[in-house]
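Thread: "does anyone have the structure for this chain?"

Original post by V.I.:
We have the sequence but no experimental structure in hand. Need at least a predicted one for the grant figures.
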Amino acid sequence: MITERVGSYFLWMQGFRDVRLVDSEKALWNLRESLYGVELQLLRADRIAGIEHILFAARNAVDSFTGKGRRAKHLSMEFLLFASGEHQIVEAIKLLGVSESSTELVLVGFSEDNTYSRALIDKATEVLSGTLDDSVLEVGTGKKQGDLKKAYNVSDKLLTASKTPGETESGVLKRLVIERSALLVLEN
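Reply from O.Q.:
Generated one for you, tokens below.
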């Protein structure tokens, strides 16, 4: 589990591999019900471009949610918008929402105190029936690079044009996905 302080919130990220979901909505509801005071979101890991992607989206979501630019009623939904780079919640769910076929997930949680981390992991492990594995966050394989390029409409031409000297393909792809989220900040 990765924990960071973001504004007045603690942010938790935990990757899961080999998840077996029967009903993704019920699983998220179960997690949210059992941990009062924690804003939770489940995301498809194949569409997350590293820890930096989560952190950037979380910082912008907290700033927007606690400021005048709020777009959603819940911080978890505000975060989903920034993580996806989408304006509409429906589109954000299409891009990052989990389904019964999702086997690699990321659980993201926000809380104003840091006392829930162990309870969060225990409950999530029980509900998701998966293996804890933060490596699902990273852009480590060619398959994940391909999945990200397709999901965020990043062409090979754009990758080549955006690459700086010494930057890896996975590094430039990660940067381009994060820049998509940054556009929402500019539009606020």
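V.I.: this helps a lot. The mean pLDDT is 90.
O.Q.: and Strands lie at 2-6, 9-17, 39-44, 105-111, 131-132.
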